[in-house]
Amino acid sequence: MVKAPSLISLAALAVKRELLLGDDVIPYVCELPADLFDILLTYLPPLALQKLQTKIKPFRDGDDCGSPDYCFENGRKHGRYGNFNTVWKKLFKTRWSGVTDQIEPVDWQQRYWEAHVQGCLDEAAELVVLPSFRGLISDINISDTILNYIGYEQQMNHLACDYSKLSYHCQQFGHYARCLRLQNALCVEETCVQALCKLLIQNSETLASLEFLHCKLSPSFVEGICRSLCSKRKRIHKIENLSIDISSFIENCPSSVVVELVSFLSSGRSLCSLKLRHCHLDRDFGRMVFSSLLEASSSLSILDLSGNSIGGWLSKYDRSGPLFSLGAGKSLQSLRLLNLRGNNLCKADARDLGSALVHIPNLEILDISDNTIEDDGIRSLIPYFVQASERCNPLVELYLENCELSGRGVSQLLDTLSTLRRPPTSLSIADNNLGSHIAASLGKFFGTSVQVLNIGAIGLGSSGFRSISVRLTFSWNWSSKNRGGVETAKFLSKLMSLAPDLVEVNAGYNLMPLESLTIICSALKVAKGHLQRLDLTGNNWELQPSHVSMLSEFRHNGLPILILPTLQALDVPYDDEP
To answer: Which H/E stretch holds residue 534?
Structure first.
């Protein structure tokens, strides 16, 4: 038998309909007892909850709330408002259940409508690319799925507001957006620029993050966006995070684009993060960015230029001239992360970079992977690494993957790092063909305070693992893909006994024989550490039922600790060529 609805639920649903259709019921809602008011909130969809919260102002202790009209404008009687934020959180979690918890406190009303506006824009982007699309983006009809989420009902059709149009949602809820992600379809000059600029102007005081993804940006579009975000009176903007990712500029020589962007960077006093990744930018653009940051007054902490061909971008700077003798600008002084991965840099660029890095005193993370800097390049950076270790904020993470380094060059680097007072605590030298003789320098480096080390695919081999095992005397995190055979298992066994705080190890593709599994399991039983995940994929094992039962006891929070080869992975030959 279907349970009959309660009187309270019927009344709450009736109030909900009245709120969606008008404001007449709001003064009477103010007079509800606190417990009934709280119950009512749980029945309201986002549109009704938004209207109620907007109309009821925060009540100040001592105010007289003697009339419904006063309650309507200045708060609920006796200051009983209900917990709106809790209800907004529930609505958010219901609609976007996959979003991870955020650090409290969170304004869940703001988060709800920000995610809603982004959802509307993403849906519009999918419609704009259809061949059948005609007209302006602002006139796009929002789908029933999204409208149902916010509580739209068919009887609202006669209202003056056109809830079905994208323009309505941007105008009503756009001011809640602190972050916006814009895809290429939303950056088409003929159909979208005017509406997009209007949205940015509306939010120029509150918008903090702006991301362009897979976009083709014309000069006029870039100009419109930049000017929409800047205050007309002060010509400054409040963007904190700007990201242009996997995009390009529509112009063979985008000088006008560069001028606009550089002007934008120079006027961004709040800019904290700048990411221009995989945008087909050249060294001239790199120089312009660097120059603008020297002159800018922002407190930039993240600069990511990865995936661009900017080799030679620092070559014209006279490192003994006034530019560097006076010190870098505020933006470089505050920089903490510099990502130059895959920028077509060579050893000469590494030399120039070493001179420039001296003037970035707070850099903590440096990534110059996927650049052919070779041994000469890494040697030219060693003096900087020495100096950085003596700073108040030393270099913490260093990534040198696939830089065409040899064992000799990396040995010199590791030997130097091993002598520093505060070397990087995280180092990656993966995907360089270093050979087994690097083991001696690695063993020496293990005696430092390093916590994370990636030595995957460096050609260490069995002899290298054997040599490292002799020297291993401390705790560290490790990643490898070196065809170490059974020596890898022996190495892991010693590693687990000496590193009880080790959380994760990637030991895949080491061509370990099946007997290695018994060695590893025995070590896990004895170690009793905090290991949560040990990746053993890529090893060609034919597991027996006895192995399965042996592995079942090793779990963390219900999940298996040992990640074993899959049947699909066994069919794929391992290629260890650098």
So the answer is: strand 533-535
β-strand partners of 346:
372
Residue 577 has pLDDT above 50, yes or no: no
Q: Partners of 560 in the beta sheet?
A: 555
First to last CA, the chain: 69
Confidence of residue 158 (pLDDT cuts 50, 70, 90): low
Q: Which of 129-143, 460-474, 554-568 has the lowest mean pLDDT?
A: 460-474
CA dist., res. 332 & res. 341, Å (int): 18
Is the preceding omega at residue 573 within 30 degrees of 0, hence cis?
A: no
Please list, in sequence order, all residues whose beta carbon lies within 8 angstroms of the beta carbon of residue 57, skipping any fewer than 6 positions away.
73, 74, 75
| pLDDT surpasses 50 at 60 | no
For residue 533, report the phi and psi dihedrals to the nearest 5 degrees: -155, 130
Q: Taking Cα atoms as reference points, which of 148, 193, 202, 210 lies closest to residue 170? A: 202
Residue 34 corresponds to which tokens in the numbers above? 């606190």
Q: Which two tokens stand for residue 362?
A: 């707070």
Q: Which residues contact 242 (CB under 8 A, 6 or more apart)?
A: 209, 210, 211, 268, 271, 273, 274, 275
Q: What is the H or E stretch that residue 540 is in?
A: none
Helix/strand/coil for 238: coil
pTM (predicted TM-score): 0.81
Q: How far apart are CA 13 and CA 418, in angstroms?
A: 70
Asked if 243 and 212 count as a contact pair (C-beta separation under 8 A), the reply is yes
How distant is the alpha carbon of residue 491 from its chain centre? 34
Q: What is the rounded distance in angstroms from the CA atom of residue 543 to the CA atom of residue 316?
A: 60
pLDDT tens by residue, 136-157: 888 899 999 999 999 987 666 6
Confidence band, pLDDT 50/70/90 cuts, at residue 70:
very low
Q: Which residue has the tokens 């409508």?
A: 113
Using the 8-state DSSP alphabet, how is residue 57 labeled? P
Alpha carbons within 13 angstroms on the beta-carbon side of residue 357 total: 30
